[in-house]
Amino acid sequence: MDIILDKTTENVMAELEKTQKEFWNIARETGVMLNMFIKMMNAQNVLEIGTSNGYSGLWLSKALKKTGGHLTTIEFYEKRQSIAIENFKTCGFDDIITPLQGSAIMILENLPEDKKFDFVFIDANKQEYIKYFNLIKPHLTSKCMITADNILSHAQKVQPFVDAISEDDEFQYEILNLPAGLLVAYRG
Questions:
Q1: What are the backbone dihedrals phi and psi of residue 123, each rounded to the nearest 5 degrees, phi first?
Q2: In the β-sheet with 182-187, what is the strand arrangement from edge to edge?
Q3: How far apart are CA 181 and CA 81, in angstroms?
Q4: Helical residues (DSSP H) of the chain, grouped into ranges
């Protein structure tokens, strides 16, 4: 069964797919997989590190509309975030999204202690994946999923992160052979 997107969302996503290389967007196959994981987990509080123009956020939000959940998304570049916010509004997802702009590390360091996430998608500065993991771990629910893009395409840069996940007894993980490579880690 294909994911059914309304005409507006499908049109926005088709336009964003044309700029995939410019904005470093995930592949459509990866978006479909993330969407499915959120629905399978019935995720309620999702964190995205690396908003870009909002393409992946649209896939996440489409699933969250079904689960009744919320997306918090972090983008370093103001210009990219402005584009993403416009795309979220156009597609009718802005009511379930909190966009945060700035350094992901600084934002994660200042999260309220009681802020918890049951699903995380990482697609930002590859060399910082390990820092993101260490900062978000205290904010993860007991049953949660962490996903990260570019695991194969940027293998050397993300290796410390992959090593940390593989050495952490709380997580079971696999790397999916999707375009760029998607790490999926489950704690539960």
A1: -155, 65
A2: 97-101, 70-75, 45-49, 117-122, 140-149, 182-187, 172-176
A3: 24
A4: 7-17, 20-23, 28-41, 55-67, 78-90, 104-109, 129-136, 155-167
pLDDT of residue 2: 54
Residue 125 sits in which domain range? Answer: 7-14+24-187
In a domain, 1, yes or no: no
Residue 2 belongs to some domain of the structure: no
Q: What is the pLDDT of residues 122-159, one digit of tens each?
A: 999 999 999 999 999 999 999 999 999 999 999 999 99
75-93 pLDDT, tens per residue?
A: 999 999 999 999 999 999 9
Q: Is the pLDDT of residue 24 over 90?
A: no
